[in-house]
From TrEMBL:
<keyword id="KW-0663">Pyridoxal phosphate</keyword>
<dbReference type="Pfam" id="PF00266">
    <property type="entry name" value="Aminotran_5"/>
</dbReference>
<dbReference type="GO" id="GO:0008483">
    <property type="term" value="F:transaminase activity"/>
</dbReference>
<dbReference type="InterPro" id="IPR000192">
    <property type="entry name" value="Aminotrans_V_dom"/>
</dbReference>
<keyword id="KW-0032">Aminotransferase</keyword>
<keyword id="KW-0808">Transferase</keyword>
<protein>
    <submittedName>
        <fullName>Aminotransferase class V-fold PLP-dependent enzyme</fullName>
    </submittedName>
</protein>
<feature type="domain" description="Aminotransferase class V">
    <location>
        <begin position="58"/>
        <end position="374"/>
    </location>
</feature>
Length: 393
């Protein structure tokens, strides 16, 4: 396998990769963080699976999928992320996985505290706040200083743990959806362990573009998407529970279709998207063939660096995400400091430069514009963005 850093700059190679995707004419999409594209071959496989399920109906599902194929696909997922099959269960997305983990975490008692920050996903924050009424706990909310730094992030959590000794559970986002900041998960998890605080990790944007080892990170509970950077059909995610911690997550609303020792009881039992699940073996194969997260992450980081290095020090532009390689990935946010309404600039980027981006609010550092290249994005697209940012600033 060629060096990923060198390959990340090889436009000819990435054009051959982009040629495997069908892209509708229109704006240059720099909002690839919402969900990812399926390759042409994955779309074709997905369509075949839709036809198979539609034609065979419950016969195949009852006789084959539920008894054998679903278990094999789950084993392939576990192998992809380096965990035991018994520690993962499919969900429709990361949000559903995280809600199940928060809802069913059973170690909280009245008077305990739970922690969220300004950078958590809104649904995760609301789920943690829901615990106040359902469990009688206090919700502690913190904001992260800007600009962020590795040591500063650790100091913020250390201070929170010391000031709130009744903390028992916290939400943590691996890659924040607002600014693209990559949290130093391993260091924060070690600190949380010292203070007896469990972490539920939101890995929605991490899987597929960041190479990580869950055991090394020190994470026992996490939720992920498969339809962002892995390249699966929509409505696929999963939850992870370290096997030795399964008893700390209750079966979802007394779910009884699976034994209490089976992690699948920790999610609502329902009819899943069978064709999408059946497409995953090909998705995993293509992900590995490209080089997995190390290759994808290097390419996305390269595209990000092209525009960030060009505008970082320009008057009128503030890049919100730091350049510490431990703290960023392909997703990065910026704002026009001379314009109060970033949404207006999002619309100008689209209408005047044919660049599709998205505004993000809610972080302590203020409103911003999220720029997320994808695996079909080119260096020429980044140059077009640089020109646009220079003109609009």
């Amino acid at each position: 396998m060629p060096d990923n850093t060198r390959r990340a700059r090889d436009e000819a190679f990435w054009q051959t990769f982009a040629d495997r995707y069908d892209v509708q004419p229109g704006p240059i999409n720099l909002e690839n963080g919402y969900f990812g594209r399926m390759s042409r071959t994955v779309v074709e496989e997905y369509q075949r699976n839709i036809e198979l399920i539609n034609n065979s109906n419950s016969v195949y599902v009852r006789q084959r999928f539920e008894q054998h194929d679903s278990l094999e696909i789950r084993a392939q997922l576990a192998e992809l992320i380096g965990v035991r099959a018994q520690s993962v269960a499919f969900t429709c997305n990361a949000t559903a996985a995280l809600q199940s983990l928060i809802r069913n975490y059973n170690l909280l008692r009245p008077g305990d505290q739970v922690l969220i920050s300004d950078l958590e996903y809104d649904t995760v924050k609301s789920a943690m706040r829901w615990l106040a009424g359902s469990r009688g706990v206090e919700v502690v909310e913190i904001g992260h200083a800007h600009p962020a730094s590795f040591d500063g992030l650790l100091a913020t959590y250390r201070e929170a743990f010391i000031r709130h000794p009744n903390l028992k559970l916290m939400a943590l986002t691996h890659v924040t959806h607002r600014t693209g900041l990559v949290m130093p998960v391993q260091a924060i998890a070690a600190l949380a362990k010292e203070h007896g605080v469990d972490i539920i990790l939101d890995g929605a944007h991490a899987l597929g573009q960041i190479d990580f080892d869950l055991e090394a990170l020190g994470i026992a509970f996490a939720g992920y998407n498969l339809h962002k950077w892995i390249g699966s059909p929509l409505t696929l995610g999963f939850l992870y529970v370290a096997p030795q911690r399964l008893a700390d997550i209750d079966p979802d609303m007394a779910e009884a279709h699976f034994p209490v020792t089976d992690i699948r009881s920790r999610t609502p039992y329902s009819t899943p998207n069978f064709p999408a699940l059946m497409t995953l073996p090909l998705v995993f194969e293509e992900h590995r063939a490209l080089g997995g997260a190390p290759a994808k992450g290097a390419r996305l980081n390269h595209l990000r660096d092209l525009w960030v290095k060009a505008v970082r020090n320009l008057p009128g532009i503030e890049v919100m995400t730091p350049d510490d390689p431990r703290l960023y990935c392909g997703i990065t946010s910026m704002r026009f400091t001379r314009h109060p309404d970033q949404q207006v600039l999002v619309e100008r980027l689209l209408n005047e430069f044919n660049l599709f981006t998205v505004a993000r609010n809610g972080s302590a550092c203020g409103p911003c514009i999220r720029i997320t290249p994808g695996l079909t994005t080119t260096a020429a697209d980044m140059q077009r963005l640089i020109v646009a940012l220079n003109e609009l600033r």
